[in-house]
Amino acid sequence: MLTDEEKKYKMRFIEEKLKEKECRLTPQRRATLDVLIENQSKHLSTEDIYELVKNKFPDVGLATIYRTLQLFDDFNIIKKLDFNDGCYRYELSEDQRHQHHHLICIKCGNVYEFDDDLLDELEGKIYKSNDFTVLDHMVKFFGYCKNCKETK
């Protein structure tokens, strides 16, 4: 859970990014960002985000949310994730070089974050053998969470 200070920092950082792209932060876009920041670890779908933004802006349309998410994705403010569950989910892009990985329960659909970066050694080998510099990667592990494993 982010502190209020961390939330403010993230919002300022994103506002600057939008300003660089000469893009206005409309009230609907700000509400969408607020939802993403407040629910950072939840990997929300477009419909989830829409429902939460609608609480603040009852007149907001689903198309506005789709356009806003596409804009944020284009500007690398968010990452669009596919967990093979039939819908895209979103999370804020991080400022660091590598992202966390995801553990996805195939029974209940819960998504857990895994922060340990075990691929540094592999990236070194890739660079040496292929003269290829890895800038980022994403790993998804599919299996059963603790609760589903116990009820299997």
TrEMBL record:
User: Which keywords accompany this UniProt record?
Assistant: DNA-binding, Iron, Metal-binding, Repressor, Transcription, Transcription regulation, Zinc
Q: List ligand-binding residues for Zn(2+).
A: 105, 108, 145, 148
InterPro entries according to UniProt: FUR, Fur_C, WH-like_DNA-bd_sf, WH_DNA-bd_sf
Needed co-factor(s): Zn(2+); Mn(2+); Fe(2+)
Query: Its domain of life?
Result: Bacteria
Q: Name one GO biological process term.
A: regulation of secondary metabolite biosynthetic process
Pfam families in alphabetical order:
FUR (PF01475)
Which protein are we looking at?
Ferric uptake regulation protein
Residues reported in the UniProt entry to bind Fe cation: 137
One annotated GO molecular function: zinc ion binding
**Could you give the cofactor binding note from the entry?**
Binds 1 zinc ion per subunit.
What is the similarity comment for this entry? Belongs to the Fur family.
